[in-house]
Amino acid sequence: MNKTFDGDSAAIYRVHDNKAQKELERNAFPLHNIKYDHNDNFIQELGLEVLYACYILLSSKISKKDTKICTDLTDLSEKYEDISEIDVPILLNGIKYPYGVCLFNKWCGFKSILISEFTNSDDILQTIFNISKSHVDFNDKVSSLSKKLFWFISTHPTETLTISLLEIADLNINDNKNLLKKLPENPYIGQHIYETLGDRIYDTIPDHHKLKKLTKVKIRKDQLLKLIGCVGYIADDENIVSSKAITTSLFEGLLPDEFFRNAPGTRKGIVDKDRATPRSGYLERSMVVNLSPIELDMDDCKTIQGLIVNLFSENHVRSLINRYYYDGDRWKLYQPTDIKSEINKTRIFRSPMTCANPNFKICKKCFGHYREIKTPYVGILAGQYIAERLTQLSLRTFHHSGSCSLPTNPAVNNILYKHLVNIQNDSKKSIIILDTILDNDEIQYFRNIKGFQSSQQNLKNQTEVIYSNEYNIINKDVTEIINSVMTLLKTEINLTPIDEVYNSYVKSILSIGQIYSTYIEIVLCNMYLVKGDTLLRYAIQSNPGAIPYKKLSIRKLHSIVSKLLGLLYEPNQTTICRFSPNDNSTLIESGNSVLEKIWFNDLY
Predict the structure, then answer these.
(1) How many Å apart are CA 265 and CA 405, to the nearest integer?
(2) Nearest-angstrom CA–CA distance, 61 and 353
(3) Cα–Cα distances in Å, from 577 out to 1, 574, 580, 582, 586?
(4) Domain map of the chain by residue range?
(5) What is this structure's pTM?
(6) pLDDT (tens digit, 9 = 90+) per residue, 23-46?
(7) What is the C-alpha separation between 519 and 381, in angstroms, rounded?
């Protein structure tokens, strides 16, 4: 039985014999599963407090204190009085390291210095995994490291998680804060300015300040800007961005009118959660039921067809690693050494969308060469993985709902960062003043932002870029991504190019979490029909030029496999919660779902 709570799937098994018990231990026991099945991330993570301690130790610098000699990391002192001075020089194998770096590597279980600078949680875990003797040993090492780091950050006399208000008051950010007070009533260009000034403020914070250290692992830049810069533009519960920004910071305290203008943004988190969670739960049930016929049941279907894929981002490239692609001569495992160089290239991949395996199933070669897949029912896995990401994301929107998330152009932000000196506003327009003369290409960047009216050079050899005020702007936050994915899956579209749907779907899914691309393609593999209602992936085996005439919705997939499948996710007319055997008002009606008919004992 599978149960869905907040997006996590809980599998309940009744262990009835020794064989089942061994299978359960092999496939579900946490110590035997180091990484997720749908991506390469480790299941066990380092908490934010632990990561902060990692950063503190690995960013420690060598001081002018007396050097201590250490022949082996196992001999390194862990006394409290030593741990409080992480900048003491340690001479290890002829090389000087700060004590903090040595201590961190010892706590990781290393015999030498394997990590000397902070990157991210996955890199640290991967290094520990590489030297671990077994999965159990890996889990033990990570658990021990987490305990020691948490103890370190909890007991260290100075390196704590507390933000110093004196540090905030001492920051030299008045010029940028004055510009934030002038944010235009055009969120399209205003969001560019807001992010740019946030970067300027961030760069003025000294590296030794607690605030700067916390941004490495715990506080995002946008949260930092709200704390010490200004709150910025707010979206209401209808996801409409207010054109008038809130120009005071949380540290200063909001003015009365700003407090009430900020209230709809706070309410948005509650509304988003209420709207998105039930829909994503229903979508998961639809996907799992309709994708359940898709299984792995042969090694190679021998197809010569493939999916043409335009690689658009690093995440997209990573999602395709260990898939088979055509190198001009044969099908070869895709294992690029330079991920960035692959961006914008076009490659042909074996895909569930072009698999020739009959009976709606797919072969292992079209699926990809991943770690051991513990079940052949990959269609069910695809439905759970993707819907779970949507559900978790809808729940996490609570933490940043109400914030403006309009897209920005990095090229415009770079120009503003270097040259923005003033902003002038009136009731109809805003003038952005830059202390440079823009060339035609740079002006075009600004022209592409909605509300652009003109640009001109003033007497001070400055460029003035003029924008009209803009209102009723729809926010581009995670709820829009969730809605776009749900719309794509639930809507039946005629005569839509496959690459258009594929690109839109993949970009949306990868923007909310890393997942192997093969699971994304599994959702689409039985959706496309050619004339005669034959699946496109079967039609192209004999006619490579076959053109689809219809894309089925996720709710219509059962119609080409078994109409009985559709009965399993019919919405109930009368819920079990409202049913009472003694209540005549709950008499059986023909409109009840199959599940209700089973409950009412009325299924013939």
Answers:
(1) 12
(2) 53
(3) 20, 8, 8, 14, 12
(4) 2-32, 48-155, 295-376+492-565, 570-599
(5) 0.76
(6) 777 666 666 678 877 778 888 888
(7) 8
